[in-house]
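Entry 14. Structure prediction run on the chain below.
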Amino acid sequence: METMGSAENEDASPGSQNFVLRRLEPSDYTKGFLELLRQLSVCGNVSQQEFTNRFQELQGLGDDHVISVIEDTDQNRIVATGTIFVERKFMRTCGKVGHIEDVVVDSSVRGKHLGHKILRFLKEHARVNGCYKVILDCSVENQGFYEKLGFKKNEIQMALYFE
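Output returned:
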């Protein structure tokens, strides 16, 4: 757990905000985690029991699937999140690749470098867990943000959605 007071956020508002970077917890269901994800994509209606079941399933994957969050402890609300999962491969002498997904910062706190903090945490998680690279998909609008954090454009992404 990493605490980030307003002194670490150059552009934090005059009202003190305390941000804590940590892993997702079951209680985050009531702290707006799903509402935050809805700023990124469709979540549907997920009951608290469904949330708990999925949380337990993902927790069983250990360090191969980590959801990080930043909580605004003044507001008791999740304001940023990002996920990393580790793919185990035969290539690169049974190497590992970190996949970063679902990075979003609440629109009310953008500009406070919370996205940078989430990405640094996820990249470090991949490094200490032996990944030889980290990859992610992003929109063209967000490309510059990721380039500032060391990512480089590499090929293209394709998707096939099942309805």
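The chain is about 25% helix and 25% strand.
Filed with the rest of this week's runs.
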